[in-house]
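pipeline/complex-builder :: batch 7 item 3
reading input block
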Amino acid sequence: MSLVANPSHLECVNPVVLGKARAKQFYCGNTEEDVRNVVPILLHGDAAFAGQGVVYETMQLAGVDDFNVGGTIHVIVNNQIGFTTNPINSRSTPYASDLGKAFNCPIFHCNGDDPIAVSRALETAIEWRHEWGTDVVIDMICYRKNGHNELDQPMFTQPKLYKAITRHKSTLEIYENRLIEEGVMTKEEAKEIRDFTLQSYESDLQASKTYVPKPEDWLSSRWTGFKSPRQHSRIRPTGVDLDVLRFIGKKAGEVPEGFKLHRQMNKIFKARQKMAEEGTEIDWGLAEAMAFGSLLLEGNHVRLTGQDVQRGTFSHRHAVVKDQDTEEGKSLKEVLVTFLKKLKHSHNTFRSRIHASQLVGKNPENVGTR
Ligand SMILES: Cc1ncc(C[n+]2csc(CCOP(=O)(O)OP(=O)(O)O)c2C)c(N)n1
Ligand SMILES: [Mg+2]
């Protein structure tokens, strides 16, 4: 299990988690089983899940081929309050989880005071995801025992609610009593488990006082050797031979056999060939093709993502072209791959919806977003 650092800005970590999951799935081999085995889990607050746009943006990607992570488990810790705000003032739908309905997700509402119900809901969610590969939402209804933070006095804003909460038995007490009543365990056994657990929390708390966190704790193995901004790093020469660039340039201007290119595209492709041959007046699109192509030739995975990236927002890229009769696409990658059978990694140019914030975390390796 790995945990992603969560910035204060509520929910903005979601696309990062999904991007990380997708990268893991990709580098594990990207088979159906790999997608099943890497499970993204997002923990939400009730107010944040209902209120933050990025939740919708992230869920909107769930069924899109090039962004699908085989389903995300969403757990809403629904303490029925957002800092000082009651649900009635922070959303327009009855349930905090209602956004899930827009995507036809199964939604399990469960009682946070009933640990068995919660664990049953989570098990069912995992089974669902395993079987159907879609998002699942758990709406765990609970309450907040104290204020939002150490300085908060919840009685200022919700005096009636907090009087009721003060009188309410803790989840632990309710569950212990239930197990004892049902004869699952004796009072003594319950106490033994409670003491053992509290003691282990206590010793961890003591150990935390001398624990020195290491920056590397946050970096996964793929970043081994990556220099932090505080360390000096060497800029590696990344240039390639002129012949290589010429080769890629010509390939980027090559029309595959039997492919019906648009009339105007024919001109562009001919111009590419000429630019590559003569090595002068190379335009932006061809320069990019040379950059991506040379990375591919070195066996790098290149993923370019954004709404119009295949063609390029200003019709400058044409990394993928369409046959005018069949609308079949051909990408620079395919043209290069026919030449480079040995190539292990792939070049993916994916279109996506308009909003860029999901894309922050969606790229296993960013070469750029638009
Ligand atoms: C985008 C954003 N807006 C506002 C805040 C300030 N803020 C921090 S917690 C919070 C309430 C969140 O309520 P909820 O999602 O129900 O989570 P809870 O704290 O109840 O677990 C707010 C408004 C923030 N951190 N990020
Ligand atoms: Mg809340």
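note: The mean pLDDT is 87.
queue -> next item
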